[in-house]
Structure formats: C-alpha cells, structure tokens
C-alpha cells in the first residue's frame, strides 16, 4: 500500500527526499516554487504568532517551563513527556528571537569540486 498526506505528497519508502536534511523546502515550494527573497515561508501554511517563551508543536503551543501543551486557544491539551520536551526545545519553532552578538562562522574553504580550491584556476 501507499500513504498520501493531506497536501497530496505521497510517501515513498525507497526514494524519500522530502525533509531529508538536505532539501529544506516545504512540499508546496517543491510543487510551486520558492517565494521572492524576504517573503520566505516559516511554515507550510499560515504563520501563527507564537506567544513569548512558548514553542509551536503542530497542534498547539508548548510551555517548556511547565511542560504543558496548550491548543491554539490556550486550553490545556496534554503534559509533554521527556521525548517531546527534548525534541521541541532542540528543533521547535519558538516565539522569540535569539541574537548571537557576533559574526557568522566562516564557511569551510574546502569545496566539493577540487578545481574550486585551486586559486590559480579561479583567476
């Protein structure tokens, strides 16, 4: 059998390329192209305002201090277990910005194509 998601994406166990760590586009961006610069998507649907100190967990907002998930109307939904807490605080979209106060780490100069590492060839 096969599994088709609500947006039309069909799961393929042998050739799964969606959300694989290399291609970070949403399915709608794969089908219809990317938005213009400055209009990038944060989600594959409408972007919700996340309350400060909370995370969006897909079916509501997560309060990591109390380990409670609320629905989008801020009604109690469930208590988060350890796995949900750890995954959400590591990967989840949060309701605040973090600033690094520094310069980005420069890219590794070693490039995949050896010709691009040859300074004479680049000239």
Automatic annotation (TrEMBL):
<protein>
    <submittedName>
        <fullName>SusD_RagB domain-containing protein</fullName>
    </submittedName>
</protein>
<dbReference type="GO" id="GO:0031514">
    <property type="term" value="C:motile cilium"/>
</dbReference>
<feature type="compositionally biased region" description="Basic and acidic residues">
    <location>
        <begin position="112"/>
        <end position="123"/>
    </location>
</feature>
<dbReference type="InterPro" id="IPR042814">
    <property type="entry name" value="Morn5"/>
</dbReference>
<feature type="region of interest" description="Disordered">
    <location>
        <begin position="96"/>
        <end position="123"/>
    </location>
</feature>
<keyword id="KW-0282">Flagellum</keyword>
<keyword id="KW-0969">Cilium</keyword>
<keyword id="KW-0966">Cell projection</keyword>
